[in-house]
Amino acid sequence: MIDILRADYTAQNVQIDELRATNQIWRLVLGLVAFTAVYIAASIGYFWIVLASVDATSTAQGLAEIEDGRTPSAMYALLFQFSAAWLGVAIACTLVHRRSFFALFGEIPVAVRQFFQVLAALAVLGFVLTILPPYSSDVGHVQAQALSAWAILLPVSLVAVFVQTTAEELLFRGYLQQHLAARFKSPLIWMVIPSILFAIGHHSPEIAGENAWIITAWAGVFGLLMADLTARAGSLGPAMAIHFINNLSALLLISLPDQMSGLSLFHMPFGMEDTDALSAWLPVDFGFMVVMWLTARLALRR
């Protein structure tokens, strides 16, 4: 029987061994400054190009439409913007740490194998949950677009979600976690600090209202589980797979109607402003997040 509670982070220790000689805090701080500068500059340039190619009466209106993400074009603009984070992390690794950007993934063959291992396990999980009772739901999903139109967009949509989710994994479970772990032994530092920052990045009271802190807590727990999984696996592959499936479900299959809904096939019958319905739904999402983590652990036998 697999000991679910045992924390074996040997794989991560092997992965970060090369970093111990250059694990100075000043390097990490400088790397974050470099990342931030590149990310902001690249994002400004990106949105300048995007806004120049769309019909918007003003820059503010164009940015607001992209932020809402209620159309496919707005969603693509929003998701592909995360390529700026890829560039920022790559610059920080290369110039500050003199380290290959690809090293963040772990050994590439291992990361790819683990990614597809977990992806396959989650596909089986999804199939099982679909065929198990109850066979009907009172949620009442509303079809947002025709299946044919959704399917035509699907290849590009999958790439867009992959770019977005992998960017977050590269920054939080890759760059931050690995370099903190090379400097500090305690998981309370290398696991918790990136997860707190990840949660802060998902805190949007102007959008989520009274549910903002619940969503922030969800993101924090998700970050902790992905940090644990990454440390056990010694690669970003498993966390990338879970994050990809999670956002695929939330952005391409069933989304809330009032935010980032432009690519989804179905909409929930309630929006961010419905605090009671959203509060009732979030615990279910919490539970499914933990189940995905356990499924990945079982798939990897770690």
What does this structure look like?
The chain is an all-alpha fold and 302 residues long. It has a domain at 10-17 and 108-300. 70% of the residues lie in helices and 2% in strands. The chain has 13 helices and 3 strands, in the order H-H-H-H-H-H-E-H-H-H-H-H-H-E-E-H. The chain has helices spanning 10-15, 25-52, 59-68, 72-80, 83-96, 108-131, 147-183, 187-190, 192-201, 205-208, 212-233, 237-253, 275-300; strands at residues 142-143, 254-255, 266-267. It has a 3-stranded mixed sheet with strand order 1-3-2. Helix 5 (83-96) packs parallel to helix 7, helix 9 (192-201) packs antiparallel against helix 11 (212-233) and helix 11 (212-233) runs antiparallel to helix 12 (237-253). The longest helix has 37 residues, at 147-183. The mean pLDDT is 89.
Short description:
The protein is mainly α. The chain has a domain at 10-17 and 108-300. It has helices at 10-15, 25-52, 59-68, 72-80, 83-96, 108-131, 147-183, 187-190, 192-201, 205-208, 212-233, 237-253, 275-300; strands spanning 142-143, 254-255, 266-267.
Describe the global form: globular
What summary fits the major beta sheet? 3 strands, mixed
Order of helices and strands: HHHHHHEHHHHHHEEH
Helix content: 55-70%
What distance separates the N and C termini?
A: 11 Å
Question: Helix and strand layout, with pairings?
Answer:
Layout: H1 10-15, H2 25-52, H3 59-68, H4 72-80, H5 83-96, H6 108-131, E1 142-143, H7 147-183, H8 187-190, H9 192-201, H10 205-208, H11 212-233, H12 237-253, E2 254-255, E3 266-267, H13 275-300
Helix pairs in contact: 2-5, 3-4, 4-7, 5-7, 6-12, 6-13, 7-9, 7-12, 9-11, 11-12, 11-13
